Model the fold of this input.
Amino acid sequence: MVYVGCTTTSLEKRIASYKAEYKSKRNIIHSFILKMREFELVDFVFEQIDVANNVDEMYEKEIFWIAQYDSSNEKHGYNISPGGHKCSDETRVKRSNSLKGRIITKEARESSSKKLMGHAVSEETRRKISEKTKGRESWNTGTVGVCKANSGSFSPDKPALNKGRRRMIIDGKIKFIRVES
Done:
């Protein structure tokens, strides 16, 4: 039995996501993960079979390899579609319904927060983010607001430093202007 999938991330990250979903207690509708749960994780071998230069080529190759292995035939594989990143309307509805009304518990939020705490972003990542956002207008450019009492203060005993000032966001930077009364 075979499953053919494609990814824009590294193979290691893709395998790690499968393993995380395999161990997860969540209800998952991904047919491959459901099949993985019927067996032991060690029963599965992951390998890279092809490389693409762009996303369109990647989807074409996914279609080719699914056809080559006949992995959309349930006798031979775990793929539920012929590939090419096209979901049926039924699959879209199932995915949508599985996410609706999902409540993230306080423990889950704290767990996610702890995982990221102390996480240092590499200089390369910072550079990539900077390059991607250069020339983009900030989401809050031109926003004007008045700071309310105790905004920016963690204690009602301490007065807010910005109380009574007008806040204006210009070029993504917050500027405070004293309001004359």
